[in-house]
Amino acid sequence: MMTIKRRLLLISNSTLHGGGYLEHCKQHIQSFLGAEVKRVLFVPYALHDRDAYAKTARQAFESLGYGLDSVHEAENPVDAVQKSQAIFIGGGNTFRLLKALYDKNLIPAIRKKVFEDGIPYIGSSAGTNVATISINTTNDMPIVYPPSLQALGLVPFNINPHYLDPDVNSKHMGETREQRITQYHEEQDTPSVLALREGGLLLVEGDKATLLGITGARLFQR
Amino acid sequence: MMTIKRRLLLISNSTLHGGGYLEHCKQHIQSFLGAEVKRVLFVPYALHDRDAYAKTARQAFESLGYGLDSVHEAENPVDAVQKSQAIFIGGGNTFRLLKALYDKNLIPAIRKKVFEDGIPYIGSSAGTNVATISINTTNDMPIVYPPSLQALGLVPFNINPHYLDPDVNSKHMGETREQRITQYHEEQDTPSVLALREGGLLLVEGDKATLLGITGARLFQR
Ligand SMILES: [Ca+2]
Ligand SMILES: [Ca+2]
Do B141 and A184 touch (CB under 8 A)? Predict the structure, then answer.
């Protein structure tokens, strides 16, 4: 039997209320990356100010003992991915992030590193959305138009990060998250959606997925 | 001076907490349509169950004294638009709605009726989003992929319906609506965004726009 070389840590949200950037998942990141990885390649495309974002991410990873290079500082982003030991894609706007991944031709490069070379991939929020089949279940506003909603396809399902349970006391009439995902499943041939509450993480190793954190998740199936 | 024949009633939300379908804006709809209009053409594409949706809309308009035809029941939707006296596009999922308008080639037909024939157009929620330049500022989940985010362009700005002010007590870490619209304006050449709170309506007559309702709106400019 072929084993899929796939190691992913998919985080619902980068910051938990009251905590610092990546603080709630530092230990998970450290045990996921382990001692062999020395440097992480950061993908800051989900936010507009890439320099500031890289600085924030660098501080967090250096405090864990890892060096961090931001792909936006590389002369050749595809080359930077090909040489990377580990990849971290941060949150922000999922449409902006996916469009940049297409514009810079990084989709096949990242897939190859994860599936063939087996390097560890960490995604948070938008970085978790783009790791799945498609960004059809992002919560973000479509501020730009990517050439497709198909994403990296590192797992065979979709994720809804920052999942919020319906609030029975709300007077707001916009759709609840549950209604939105249900509307997605009214469409033909739509995959399952794992709704990850804030604080939740999904660890994927080969064909095995493990839910981490204490807030849990809901699985929506068509 | 050329006068633009344009009459639009753009509603933030079809149902206000505690009320029935279109109940909070019945009087505005009645005075907007007046006595000359006898029948309204309804566009139900934002929801999956078009028959059920048309039934709900029919009841609401019949209670105001107007007949209602649903475009999904017409043999030729373009033809139905061309013969319409007034159009009402209801809410639901904005991506699904816009994709259907493109698939059925209704964009130019509706524009022509509004700009050249001057028929009244009512939009609610998703039906308000598609009346603007683009759906870049919808709140909806991108459950399908329309061929473009460009919309009917009946007004020269975008709208964010169901606008929610930032909640300082929230522990949720997803972006506030204000942050989302601000991210939109980080992109080049983006138009102004009128954020319509629930309960708000925008009446557009020629080149004049009037805010109705008591909840008010915020104007975001790049
Ligand atoms: Ca986001
Ligand atoms: Ca909606």
Answer: yes
Taking contacts as CB-CB distances below 8 angstroms, the residues of chain A near B93 are: 183
Question: Catalytic pick from B140, B185, B192, B207?
Answer: B140
- CB-based contacts of A27: which residues, under 8 Å, 6+ apart? none
A93 at the B interface (CB within 8 A)? yes
CA of A212 to the centre of ligand 2 (A): 32
Instruction: Count CA atoms closer than 13 A to B103's CA, side-chain side.
Output: 11
Distance CA B152, CA A210 (A): 45
Residue A74 pLDDT: 98
Q: What are the tens digits of pLDDT across the range B25-57?
A: 999 999 999 999 999 999 999 999 999 999 999
Among B90, B100, B96, B184, which Cα is nearest to B136's?
B184
Q: Which of B143, B144, B176, B190 to mutate to test the interface with A (most CBs of A within 10 A)?
A: B143
Instruction: For residue A15, give the nearest of A66, A71, A91 by alpha carbon.
Output: A91
pLDDT at position B1 is: 58
Around ion ligand 2, residues with a beta carbon closer than 5 Å are: B 140
Q: How far is A18 from chain B (nearest CA, A)?
A: 8
Q: For residue A35, give how far its alpha carbon lies from the nearest alpha carbon of chain B (Å).
A: 31
Asked if B121 and B86 touch (Cβ cutoff 8 Å), the reply is yes
Summarised one tens digit per residue, pLDDT across range B119-173 is: 999 999 999 999 999 999 999 999 999 999 999 999 999 999 999 998 888 888 7
- Could you tell me if residue A105 is left (phi over 0), alpha (psi between -120 and 50 degrees) or otherwise beta? left
Nearest residue in chain A measured CA to CA from B169: A17
List, for residues B176-207, the tens digit of each pLDDT value.
999 999 999 999 999 999 999 999 999 999 99
Residue B11 contacts by C-beta under 8 Å, 6 or more apart in sequence?
A: B25, B28, B122, B123, B124, B125, B127, B128, B161, B201
Q: Is A149 on the interface with B (CB under 8 A)?
A: yes
Contacts for A53 with CB less than 8 Å, ≥ 6 apart: A44, A47, A70, A90, A92
Cα of B131 to nearest chain A Cα, Å: 16
ipTM: 0.95
pLDDT of B169 reads 85
Query: What distance in Å separates the CA atoms of residue A93 and residue A145, rounded to the nearest whole number?
Result: 12
Domains defined along chain B, listed by start: 11-164+195-216 (3.40.50.880)
Residues of A in contact with B18 (CB under 8 A): 171
Contact status, residue B13 vs residue B199, Cβ threshold 8 Å: yes
